[in-house]
Task: inverse folding
């Protein structure tokens, strides 16, 4: 049985754990989120998306 989990969910869990343990503060986390939203509206967004898809596809073959 294969279980698929969205990369957004996994990243959200990682950020939540980092916030709870104190390794990441709220303001740097918000700045990184704003940077991500800004980056998503640029021309490099398709390249990043394709790279993430390629890496996750490669990992699933292992």
Result:
């Amino acid at each position: 049985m294969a279980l698929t989990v969205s990369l957004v969910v996994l990243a959200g869990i990682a950020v939540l754990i980092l916030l709870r343990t104190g390794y990441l503060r709220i303001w740097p986390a918000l700045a990184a989120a704003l940077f991500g939203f800004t980056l998503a509206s640029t021309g490099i967004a398709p390249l990043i998306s394709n790279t993430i898809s390629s890496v996750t596809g490669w990992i699933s073959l292992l």
About this structure: Helices lie at 7-21, 26-40, 45-61. The chain has three helices and no strands. Residues 8-61 form one domain.
